[in-house]
Design brief:
By secondary structure, the protein is of the alpha+beta class. Helices cover 29% and strands 28% of the residues.
């Protein structure tokens, strides 16, 4: 995937507003973070770490977008509870997770169709510059590599 154009998407955020990846093209780099479920330990640890380090992403002219198959309503509550300061997008129909190869057909507890934990850095031209798709949902992406990639784009 690295070096290829990022698949565009149109997903709803927690304010029920449409968000397109292409709206950032020519303006900002984007960090896409797919995560399995809101309100779970590893997801909360990962996203709260990003929340606490958001100034770093702003300095790299990067918009952070979190994506899961949770509903807009669940994501809104999760965002409020965790005081997340970036957009969470609902991929309820699972199309974007599949387009990014970030999709578990089978997950724990017999859940089917869940986003894999993964990270993608997309430059202002819409090209994927970093991709990490984790098979083990209890792992967190390598943020040192993400930061390094963003630093090169700035």
């Amino acid at each position: 995937m690295t070096g290829n154009p990022a698949p565009d998407f149109n997903l709803y955020n927690t304010n029920k507003e449409e968000t397109r990846l292409s709206q950032y093209q020519g303006q900002k780099n984007v960090l896409l973070l797919f995560f399995p479920f809101a309100f779970t330990g590893t997801c909360t640890k990962e996203l709260c770490g990003v929340r606490d380090d958001l100034a770093r992403y702003a300095k790299a002219n990067a918009e952070v977008l979190g994506i899961s198959v949770d509903s807009v309503h669940s994501l809104r509550r999760y965002k409020e509870d965790q005081q997340l300061n970036f957009l969470l997008l609902s991929d309820f129909n699972k199309e974007t997770s599949k387009a990014y190869n970030s999709f578990y057909e089978q997950f724990s507890l017999n859940h089917r169709g869940v986003s894999k934990r993964s990270a993608f850095v997309i430059d202002k031209e819409g090209i994927i510059r970093y991709a990490e798709i984790l098979e083990n949902a209890s792992e967190i992406p390598d943020f040192s590599k993400i930061h390094s990639t963003l630093a090169k784009l700035f």
